[in-house]
Amino acid sequence: MIRVLVRALTPLAASGLGRMIASDPDLAVIAGEDEGAEADVVLLEVDPEADAARDAPAEAAAGGPPVVLLADDPPAEWMTEALASGARAVLPRTITETELTAALRAVSAGLIVHHPDAAGMIPAARSAGADRDRAAEALTRREMTVLRAMGDGLANKEIAARLGISEHTVKFHVAAILAKLGATSRTEAVMLAVRRGLLLV
Questions:
Q1: DSSP state of 10
Q2: Cα–Cα distance measured from residue 97 to residue 88, given in angstroms and rounded to the nearest whole number
Q3: Boundaries of CATH 3.40.50.2300 in the chain?
Q4: Helix segments in 85-140, DSSP class H
Q5: What is the pLDDT of residues 102-149, one digit of tens each?
Q6: How far is it, in rounded angstroms, from Cα 90 to Cα 63?
Q7: Which class would CATH give 128-195?
C-alpha cells in the first residue's frame, strides 16, 4: 500500500484529490492533520506566485518522502528550480485521475515524472560544461545574495536570519545554487563561483 500525504490549498481541493487517489486500491490517503503518520509520497498543491511555494521542494531536499507538486501554469524557472531542489514531479492541477494515480505510483517507485504539457519547459540535455556556464549566468538575484552569504561561511539558519526568510527557503535556494553551478557541496559551489568571477575573495 502506497501512503499519500495530501496537502492542498483548500479543504475542498484536498477532498477532491483524496477521492481521486482513493480510486486506486493500492493508494491510501493520509489526511493533512495526520502529520505523524509515515507517508510514502507527499502530494502538495501550491501556488507558484506565493512565497510559501518556494519552501515546498525543500522538504524533498531534506530527505523526507518524495514530493509531487500540483501547480497551475508554473513559470519555467520556478519549475526548473523545484525539480533541481528535489521535487519528483510538477503536475497541473487539471491532471486526470488516471494521470495522478500513475504519477504517484511512479514517484513512489523512485522515478521522476514529467507531464506532457510541461515538456517544453524542461531544459534539454546539454554538455556538462556548457550547462554549468549557462546555469551560473541564470542565478537569480536572491540566489546571488544567498551565494554571497555562503561565501561568508554562514550556515542556513544564519542566512535565514540575515535575509528575513525561513530556513526551508534558504535550503531551497542552496539546492538551486548547487544544481545551477553543477556543485555537489556548498564548499564546491563557493569555489566554482569564485573561479567564475561570481564571488570576490
A1: S
A2: 18
A3: 2-121
A4: 97-108, 128-137
A5: 999 999 888 888 877 665 555 543 444 444 455 555 788 888 899 999
A6: 18
A7: mainly alpha
